Amino acid sequence: MNAQVLYTDNLIIRRFEESDIHALYVILSDEEVNRFLPWYPMNDIYETRRFLDTGFEKQSYAVCLKNDGFPIGYINIAEKEPYDLGYGIRKEFWNRGIITEACKVVIEQAREEGLPYVTATHDRNNPGSGRVMQKIGMRYHYTYEELWQPKNIMVFFRMYQLNLDGKYDRIYMGYWNQSNVRFIEKF
Asked: pTM (2 decimals)?
C-alpha cells in the first residue's frame, strides 16, 4: 500500500516510526498474542529491532487509537500474489472490533490502488481471526495443511478471499496446490 496515513472514526493507521519500537515490542513479545502468528515472541527490544529491520516496518502499518496515536496493533497486505492480509493486536484490545475497523479501511485503500483481490489465512484453532475475515466480507474457500515455519508444526489453515475487482469467481489456488492435505469444510 502506498498510503502514509489512513483514518477511521476511532483509529489512525500509519507507518511505524522509530519511536514505536517499545510499542511494537509489547505486541510482539506477548506469547498469547503471537500464538497463531508465524514467528516466535520477541525476547527483548534488540530482537524486535532486528525483526523490524527484516522489512516488517516497510510492509506493515501501526494501528493506533485516535485519542493517543499509540500503536496497539499492526496490519499489512503483501504487495505480491496472493496479497495476503495479516494483523495482530494486543490482547487487552481483543473483541472490540478494532482490527475489523482497521482491515476495512486498509482493504478499501488496496481496492483504490488496484489490487485485484486479498487473501487471508488463519489456523483452524483460531476461529476469532476467521470471524474478523468474515466481518470484512471475505469468503472461506478451503482448508489446507502446511508445515509452519519457523515453528516447525503442522497446521490446518483456512483460506479466505475477497475479490476487489469484480471478478467474483476467482479463487487463489496456490495454497491448495502446494498442500497434499486439503479439503473444503462445512461450517
From this structure: 0.94
